[in-house]
Amino acid sequence: ERSLFMRRIIAACMLAALLIGCAGCAFFNPEAVRGTEAPLPSPADSPADDEIAIGDAITTAHCQVMIETIELAYDVLPEKKDGLFTHYKAAPGKVYICVSLEVKNRTQTDLRCEELGWATAHYNGSQQYRSFTVVEDAYTGFALANLSVLRPGETQHIKFLIECPQQVHETRAPLWLAFDIDGTSFKYTIRE
């Protein structure tokens, strides 16, 4: 009887550990998080006539955003690479368009980083790829945007990552980005 009781306790503990592990993997998997986002209207549906350049500052109702860099990368690394850190390595046959932003909260309330906006890559006239957002974190490299807030007056480094086929990097076909940040639309041309 005691042996049966112990087996049941051990089985329950193993089941609990398995469920917690599965939940953790889904929670920290950007693909799983991205798949649960509610669809947002595409920036392509609204005019993005305002062309921006690297270093431009855009002031919106809630924040001030500066475009720091836009680059294509096979492995997106954080600024601080001490010890253990997270990074985004592109899957085989894929590349990331990495948009680095510096965002300052201009309000007196917290802003959820996942709600600040997004970017859509327009490639070769007909293909579109949408971004997901990650936040630079001094301890882990990156944090998921749905877990991060921008406090009043705080400045944070945020990245829009757009996963695209490798051909986007290897060809010279037209490539531009449509942005929607805090309801403000603008455009950046990578190549015509």
Explain what this protein looks like in three dimensions.
With 192 residues, the protein is α+β, with helices and mostly antiparallel strands. 19% of the residues lie in helices and 42% in strands. The protein contains 3 helices and 14 strands. The protein has helices at 2-27, 30-35, 167-170, and strands spanning 57-59, 63-73, 75-76, 88-89, 94-105, 111-112, 117-123, 127-130, 132-137, 141-144, 149-150, 155-165, 175-181, 184-191. The protein has a 6-stranded antiparallel β-sheet. The longest helix has 26 residues, at 2-27. Mean pLDDT is 80; it is low at 21-48.
What's the gist of this structure?
The chain is an alpha+beta fold. The chain is 19% helix and 42% strand. β1 and β2 form a beta hairpin.
What spatial form do the alpha-carbon principal axes imply?
Answer: globular
Rg over CA atoms: 20 Å
| Widest sheet, order of strands | 1-2-5-12-9-10
- In whole angstroms, the N-to-C terminal distance is 76 Å
String of helices and strands: HHEEEEEEEEEEEEHEE
Which structural category do the helix and sheet elements fall into? alpha+beta
**Helical amount:** 10-25%
Q: List segments where confidence is low: pLDDT < 50 over at least 5 consecutive residues.
A: 21-48
Oligomer status: single chain
Mean pLDDT: 80
Number of strands: 14
Percent of sequence in beta strands: 35-45%
Provide a count of the helices. Answer: 3
| Largest β sheet strand count, sense and barrel closure | 6 strands, antiparallel
